[in-house]
Amino acid sequence: MKKKITVDLSVKIVKPEWFERLSNFSKIVRVFCWMMRFVNKLRKKPSYDTKTLTVEEKAKAEIILWSIEQKKHFHEKENSVHGLQVVRGDDEVLRVKTRIIERDDDLSFLYPILLPSKHYITECLIREYHLKYCHAGVQILAAKLRLRYWIFSSKRNIRSCVSRCVVCKRFTAKALTTPPIQLPLDRVRESAIFEITGIDLCGPLLLKPRGKAWIVLFTCAVYREIHLEPLTSLSTESSINGVHGQCYKL
Ligand SMILES: [Zn+2]
C-alpha cells in the first residue's frame, strides 16, 4: 500500500500598494492630494476648491503620506528607531534628532524626515532627485536628499537607484576595443615620397568678392606628408591640372 504524504504549503499573497502603479514621486503626491480632497469632501471637512492643486496642499499631502508609511515600517520605542533618536512632531511625522540642532538653520535640515529603506516611494524620490539634478552621482544626491530627508542606508539605496538609470549606464559604459591590426605592405615598405598617395577634395571655399575654390589634398601613405593644390572649378580639365601640378612639383 502506498504511503500518503500530505504537504502543507502556505502562500502569502502580497497585494500591491496603490502607489506602485505610479513611477514618479511627484505624481504619487498629486494622486494622494486628489484622494485627500475626495475623502475630505465625503467627510464634509473643509478642503480646497481650486481646479488645480496648490503648493501648500501638496506639501501637506507629502507629510501625511510619509507619516502613513512610517507607521507601517517603523516601531518607535522610547523616542528611538533602530538606535536613531527621533521626535514626532505635531504633523505626526517621525523626524531624526540630529546632533546639529543647536545650529541656526532650516528646521527640515535639523530634523530631517525619517524614510524607510528599500521602499517604493523612497526609490521614486531618489529617482526624482537624480533626474532633477541632471543625473547626479551618489555623493551629490546623498547631500541633496539629506537637506530634507534621512534615509536608512542612504548611500546603498542611492547607489542601487543610480545603477539602474539607463541614461547613466549609456554614459558609463566602456567603449568597445579591438586588437591593433597590422599595417599593409604599402604603408611600411621603403619608397619615394608620394609614391603611394591618397587623394581627397575639400571645399568649396567662398572667395571675395565672388567665386569658389576647392582644395585637392594629397597624402603620402608612408611618410604621412600632405600637399594642398588649389582648384578654381570642378571641371575635368581643372581636376587633371591639379593632379598634374602636384606631379610636376615632385
Ligand atoms: Zn541617470
TrEMBL record:
Keywords carried by this UniProt record? Nucleotidyltransferase, RNA-directed DNA polymerase, Transferase
Nucleotidyltransferase listed as a keyword: yes
Positions of the Integrase zinc-binding domain = 125-172
For whether the record's keyword set contains Nucleotidyltransferase, the answer is yes
List the Gene3D superfamilies.
Answer: 1.10.340.70, Ribonuclease H-like superfamily/Ribonuclease H
Among Pfam families, the record links this protein to: Integrase_H2C2
The protein's GO terms of the molecular function aspect are: nucleic acid binding; RNA-directed DNA polymerase activity
Protein known as: Reverse transcriptase
Origin species? Caerostris darwini
Lineage of this protein's species?
Eukaryota, Metazoa, Ecdysozoa, Arthropoda, Chelicerata
